[in-house]
Write a structure and sequence with these properties.
The protein has two domains: 4-37 and 52-89, no CATH class; 99-249, Jelly Rolls. It contains one helix and 20 strands. The chain has one helix spanning 27-31, and strands at 4-6, 11-13, 57-60, 65-68, 76-79, 86-89, 99-104, 108-109, 121-123, 135-138, 141-144, 148-159, 165-167, 170-174, 182-186, 189-191, 197-208, 215-219, 231-232, 242-249. The strands form six sheets. Strands 7, 8, 9, 12, 17, 19 and 20 form a seven-stranded antiparallel beta sheet that branches. Strands 10-11-18-14-15 form a five-stranded antiparallel beta sheet, with no helix packed on it.
């Protein structure tokens, strides 16, 4: 029995009651080009998901193909945390996101005691613009509200050295809220009556993985104290004894 399909008139002739005869369509027929849609014959109207908009994306959710609505300007397509579906996200701004500097606010005499913590800090405010405001200090103990990898630069200037005086300022870090401290960065200088001022400085990179337990402090000395006849230079107008924190990237 011949079966005629007229695609223009949308009619089928010669089809018996009960459907197509056995053998009319088989797997071999479907596997040939004759059994497939022609190239470029399926239009977007046949793929409509509903509420479609320019810029939408279609993806497979494990059961069916569904629509992902377009993102906002500047967003990028990325995978979700479970790596199961795409999603839109705002990329990192790039560049430095946090940079702050603090300075000793006034001149103070050396303590003559090893391990004395410097406490009279202020954030620089002379022709200064920090980036962000994630670092703060209380009684000489610095903390931050943002995790990350940081670069720390620091300097201590000592003057009016009337006697031979060696001193070794250092930065200490605690990861248990100040219960235990470890020396993280050292420097050493020596001066005498022939040298009016001497600076000691260093820099280091450190990781803040947990902001709730991370602490940092700046000691005027470790095992070589600053003599009480010497002054540690500080000022509310310029940076002498100072410390800065620059965020380099994620922890």
């Amino acid at each position: 029995m011949a079966i005629t399909i007229n695609g223009t008139a949308n009619t089928v002739a010669g089809l018996a009651v009960g459907g197509l005869p056995d053998g009319t369509v088989d797997n071999d027929t479907l596997a040939t080009d004759a059994g497939k849609p022609a190239d470029n014959s399926i239009t977007g109207a046949k793929l409509a998901m509903g509420s479609d908009a320019q810029g939408d994306v279609m993806y497979y959710n494990g059961t069916d193909y569904i629509r992902l609505a377009k993102g906002s300007a500047g967003q990028v397509l990325t995978m979700n945390s479970g790596a199961t579906a795409p999603e839109w996200a705002t990329p990192d701004a790039g560049g430095i996101t946090s940079a702050q500097q603090f300075r000793l606010a006034a001149v103070q005499a050396g303590s003559g005691s090893n391990g004395t913590v410097l406490t009279n800090w202020e954030e620089s405010d002379t022709d200064y613009q920090g980036i962000g405001s994630v670092w703060s200090q209380s009684s000489g103990v610095f903390s931050t509200t943002t995790t990350g990898i940081y670069l720390c630069n620091w300097n201590m200037t000592v003057r009016s050295i009337n006697v031979q005086d060696g001193f070794d300022p250092n930065i200490q870090i605690s990861t248990d809220s100040g219960s235990n401290w470890s020396n993280r960065s050292h420097s050493y200088s020596m001066g005498d009556s022939s040298i009016n001022a001497q600076s000691s400085n260093n820099h280091f990179i450190f990781d803040v993985a947990n902001t709730s337990t991370f602490r940092l402090r700046y000691n005027e000395s470790d095992v070589n104290s600053v003599n009480s006849e010497s002054d540690i230079v500080g000022s509310s107008n310029s940076n002498w004894t100072c410390i800065s924190f620059i965020r380099l990237g994620d922890t």
